[in-house]
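Appendix B. Raw example, untouched.
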Amino acid sequence: MALAYHPLTPARWPDFETLFLEKRGELPPDENLAGGGCWCMEFRRPPKDFLFKSDENRGMLKDLVDSGEPTGILAYDGDEPVGWCSVAPRSQCVGLEYRAHLRPVDERPAWSIVCFFVARPARGKGVMAGLLAAAIAFARERGARILEAYPMRGDAPDDMAGGFRGVLRSLEREGFVTAVERFPGEPIVRLSLD
């Protein structure tokens, strides 16, 4: 694979849609794979306002992208989008505030990695590791001093459902360390970018 990584911009929005509308397995034709329709908004909205399979999610993320707010990184194999990592200031991820075990570690401003998605044909080919490295560089270039992620302990299952928040050992290889673990198996890991 000839992998390249680029921030999601308005010009790259059609590639993001292509990736998130990827069809897997035997799903009905109106289902999408990436989060079942979350459009990477699960942690960007309060839980009471978030619904899966909502066109509202797509529209809200599109508005964020169009505003110039940092939202994440796309991975490409040549011209084909094959992966996604959501990386943005934690303040954009208001849904984290409603999960007691994911509330802030301290008062220092942080950026958050809340989601990875790799297209099925590209899995096992280093896309997630590349996305993580690109996300670290992206946050650092934009002045982030702390980068957080919220993985679940253990290996990502084959369908990536449990690994969408990141794989702990991959994060640790990049220097992330557990800052707090308020709920067993769901640590907040941090990387200092100073």
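End of appendix B.
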